[in-house]
Every structure is written in C-alpha cells, then in structure tokens.
C-alpha cells in the first residue's frame, strides 16, 4: 500500500521489500511517485514491499522491477538484486521461464506491408511537390528562382557585469550519474522533478522563490554558478531534503564551509 505520513521505517529491515519501503519513506515519496518514475505498475510495487512475488511471472521481472525501484529512491540496486535472488529462490524454483523482462510497455509495430506502402506514398508526394514548385511542368510560366539567403551578422554576447557574480547568477545542476531529484520553491510548488540521465542539465530559475532540492545521492549532481563549481550539496550516499539551491544560498554555504567557487571545466 502507498506510504502514509504516520508510517515509520523498520528499525531492522530484513527483506528487500522492507528495505525499499524504508528508502522510499526516507525520501518523503509516495508509492505512486515511484510508479510514475519507473513505469512499474502500482500493484507490483505494492507486492514487492509486501515481499509477495507470487503475482510476477518470472524472477527476471521481479529483479527488473526491484532494480528500477532502487534507482528511483537512491538505493543500491546491485546489492538488492543479489538479495532478491536469494530471497525468491524457492518462489520461482518450480516455474519454467519462457519470457524476458522489459520495463516498458511493448511497442506495437505495424505490418511491414503497411510500412512499405506508406514510404512509397511519401516519396511520391515529395516528388510531386518538387515538380510543382521547382518546374513549370504542371503550370504555365517559368520557375521562380529562389531568393538568395540573407546572412545574419551575429550579435556579440553581452559582457557580464563584474558585480553579477556576487549578487546573483545562474545555478545549473548537471547529473554525473543517473539520479532522481526534485526542485521546489518556498511554497512547496514543484519546479522540476524527474530521474536525470548522465550529462543532463537543469537551470534553476533565477526568479524562483527560495528554490530547494530533495536529492537521494548528492555525489551524483555537479552544481555550478555561472559555470563555476561549488561544493557538493551533501555527503556521498546520504539523502538530503529542503536544501536551498539559489545562487545566494549556495555562495553563503560555500563561504561558511571555507570553499570558494572555482571555474568549471
């Protein structure tokens, strides 16, 4: 079942489902949030937290769902997958496996005949348009020569003010590993929320009202202000929540920690 505000993590979780549930609650996430990120049906996530794998067709499905769940809450997917194999060895021992796990819905592909017919029609349309606009084969007169393209002169980029780096700046979050995060303002309104891929970037709006972050793995995100690196948002492997990520807050935090933003590479 979905997590309720009054629920608390188990003190000594033993099973994989209990560990995932505790990690989810520590992140302040609902089970429906995990389902939205992983595309795993809610009923399967509920079964995993209850350590009931009888409704899953194969151990490959169970392991795939558990690893996706672990990534969404910042848990160790490799270690949990290994534990799950041991935990479900008896559950799936008597079953014959005929299907493989695919975390996304199967793509329904049209018959090859329809594909080829569509491609042929598209080519005919392109050729007819080319003859109509490029020649006078279907209409009187001569073809109109295209006007020469006008080359725009690039405008030099404005030079930033020397005081801009002290009073404001663009905060950019870059994922160095696959990681889920949520950005919200002082009123609780969500500004950004998703699982970022390696190299994906997000620019925090400069006019946001005290933007804050909820992050499972601080070591997986590089933070910069106007391209200059700032210290990590927290300790590696320790989830953080309600940490301000405005340019002013990050500079104050770096100053308190005795670190100075350095130019990024």
Q: Indicate the percent of residues in helices.
A: 25-40%
Q: Which stretches are poorly predicted, pLDDT < 50 over at least 5 residues?
A: 1-6, 96-102, 104-108, 160-165
Rounded to the nearest angstrom, the distance between the terminal CA atoms is: 46 Å
Structural class: alpha+beta
**Which value, in Å, is the CA radius of gyration?**
27 Å
By CATH reckoning, the class of the largest domain would read Mainly Alpha
Number of strands: 9
The CATH architecture name of the largest domain reads Orthogonal Bundle
> What is the ordering of alpha helices and beta strands?
HHHHHHHEEEEEEEEHE
Number of helices: 8
Description:
- The protein has 265 residues and is α+β, with helices and mostly antiparallel strands.
- It folds into 2 domains: 1-103, 434 Repressor (Amino-terminal Domain) (Orthogonal Bundle); 165-263, Immunoglobulin-like (Sandwich).
- It contains 8 helices and 9 strands.
- It has helices at 16-26, 31-38, 42-49, 59-73, 77-87, 112-134, 164-167, 247-257; strands at 171-175, 179-184, 190-196, 201-203, 212-215, 221-225, 228-229, 240-244, 262-263.
- It is flat and about 75 Å long.
- The model is unreliable at 1-6, 96-102, 104-108 and 160-165 (pLDDT under 50).
């Amino acid at each position: 079942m979905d997590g309720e505000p009054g629920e608390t993590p188990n003190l000594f979780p033993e099973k994989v489902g209990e560990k995932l549930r505790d990690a989810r609650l520590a992140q302040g996430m609902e089970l429906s949030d995990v389902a939205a990120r992983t595309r795993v049906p809610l009923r399967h996530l509920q079964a995993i937290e209850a350590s009931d794998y009888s409704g899953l067709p194969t151990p490959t499905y169970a392991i795939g769902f558990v690893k996706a769940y672990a990534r969404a809450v910042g848990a160790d997917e490799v270690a949990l997958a290994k534990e799950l194999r041991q935990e479900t060895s008896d559950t799936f021992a008597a079953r014959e496996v005929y299907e493989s796990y695919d975390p996304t819905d199967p793509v329904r592909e049209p018959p090859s005949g329809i594909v080829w017919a569509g491609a042929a029609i598209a080519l005919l349309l392109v050729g007819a348009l080319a003859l109509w606009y490029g020649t006078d084969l279907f209409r009187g007169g001569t073809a109109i020569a295209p006007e020469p393209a006008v080359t725009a002169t690039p405008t030099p980029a404005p030079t930033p003010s020397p005081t801009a780096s002290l009073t404001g700046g663009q905060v950019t979050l870059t994922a160095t590993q696959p990681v889920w995060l949520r950005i919200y303002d002082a009123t609780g309104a969500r500004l950004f929320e998703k699982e970022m891929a390696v190299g994906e970037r997000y620019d925090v709006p400069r006019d946001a009202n005290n933007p804050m972050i909820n992050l499972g793995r601080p070591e997986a995100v590089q933070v910069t202000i106007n391209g200059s690196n700032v210290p990590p948002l927290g300790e590696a492997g320790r989830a953080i929540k309600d940490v301000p990520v405005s340019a002013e807050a990050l500079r104050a935090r770096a100053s308190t920690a005795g670190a100075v933003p350095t130019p990024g590479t």
